[in-house]
Amino acid sequence: MFQFPSCSHGLRTGICEVSKLVLINVAPTLPDIQVQSVASFCSTVLGTAVRIPCEVLKQRLQAGLFDNVGEAIIGTWQQDGLKGFFRGTGATLCREVPFYVAGTGLYEESKKLAQHVLGRELEAWETIVVGALSGGLAAVTTTPFDVMKTRMMTAPQGRSITMSMVAFSILRREGPLGLFKGAVPRFFWIAPLGAMNFAGYELARKALNKSEAAAS
């Protein structure tokens, strides 16, 4: 079950590529940064919606609310019904959409800047570093939504809870820094994923294109 999120990432990547192709054909004069942003938005919303139920179960298991997956599924259904599997959807989307949209835009612009400064195409390792830094910085800026998402998903079941309730509770009890708990480990955890998401896919695609060109 918990390998399912990787499927959602694959779905997100596929939707992103299709969205870019559609936008390029429908609006060929649209700037690259806008094409990347719109495609990232569409793919992130759909990919995240698919992943949220697994995320809810994972958080509740890690918080010790249940002992196993089966118990988590039954308990969530009995206490909250179907909507229980989508608790924290708003906070998750508020985390994921800015992360991928801002991360993709930051990656593309940072890569162009690095190429301009160096006066050449980036080496593979340089592209990976840019991807890692872009992912890490995007992760830090979206940490408040990650904190709220976790609090919502692990809140006592059977009780309605909203993002504003969680946000005000954190600010009142822990102050503004409470919204950035775990920002540093999140940076180092997400940076490698940023390298894979932003740079790894692009490098793999370039290698595939070169192989196809050589074969033809």
TrEMBL record:
PANTHER family: S-ADENOSYLMETHIONINE MITOCHONDRIAL CARRIER PROTEIN. Keywords: Membrane, Repeat, Transmembrane, Transmembrane helix, Transport. Its main location: membrane. It comes from Trapa natans. The keyword Phosphoprotein does not apply. It is a multi-pass membrane protein. Pfam families: Mito_carr. One of its GO terms (cellular component) is membrane. Solcar repeats lie at residues 31-113, 122-207. Belongs to the mitochondrial carrier (TC 2.A.29) family. This is S-adenosylmethionine mitochondrial carrier protein. InterPro entries: MCP_dom_sf (IPR023395), MCP_transmembrane (IPR018108). It is found in: Membrane.
